User: What shape does this take?
Amino acid sequence: MKIEFIGTGNITAPENNACCLIDEHILVDCGNGIVKTLAQKGHVVNDIDTLIITHLHGDHFLDVPFLIMQRCFTGASGSLRIYCPDGTEEAVDEVMRIAYDDVDDFDEIKKGAGVDFIEIWDDVECEIEGGSLRFIEVEHGDCDDCYGFIIDINGRRAGFSGDSAYCSSIGKIVSQSDISVLDMSFTQGGRQHMGEDNILHLIDTYHKPVYATHMSTTSRKHAQTADNDLLTVTKDGQIIEV
Assistant: This one.
C-alpha cells in the first residue's frame, strides 16, 4: 500500500489541507485547493475512483464539487464512490449552488461524473478493490458524524483518525493497524483535536508507527524536536509504503 501525503496542514498552516492519496486511486478528504494540487503533482484526477470524506468541515470536503465537475466535463469513465457521513451529498450540492448559481441541474453533472454517495456509520465495513474499509466514529468537539477508518489492502492495515480528539476510538484504530495517520493539530490535545502529548502517549501504549498530519506550524515545529523513532512529522508530497 502506497500512501502519498498531498497535504499535511490544518487551516492555519501554509501546507495544503490534510489529504492523502492511497495507491493512486483512493483519496482521503478533498478540502479547498486539493483538486488543483493533485493535478500540479502530476496525478490523473480522473483515475480516482474512491473518495473518503471523514467529516463535513470545509477543509475536508469543499473541493468535492470541483472533482465531480472535472470528471463530468472531461468524460471520465467508470464511477466515483464517495464514502461519507449522512448529509454529504446535500452539503456538496449547497457548495455547488453557492459557487455556480447559474448551474441549473447539478444532478446531471453528478450523473455524468458517475458519482455514487455511500453513507457510512460507526463500525460499518465496506469492500473496496483489493481489500476493505472499516469506519470508526471519533470525537471532534461539537461536530457530529466524524469518522476515522482502517483500510486493509492485501493484508496490510493503515489507520486514519480524521479530525479527532483523543478518545477510545483512536486507541482502537491504532491498536488494530500496522501504521496510523493521526491528527496532531496542537502540542497539547483538547476536545476537538489531538496534540503531540496524545500522540506520544499512543506510541508509548501501542508501540506502533504514527505519521502526524493536520498540523499547525507550532505543533509541527515542536514535534520535530521529539526524540521518538516511531513518530514521523509528515511533509506535503511525502510517500510511504505500508
Q: What stands out?
A: The longest strand covers residues 131-137.
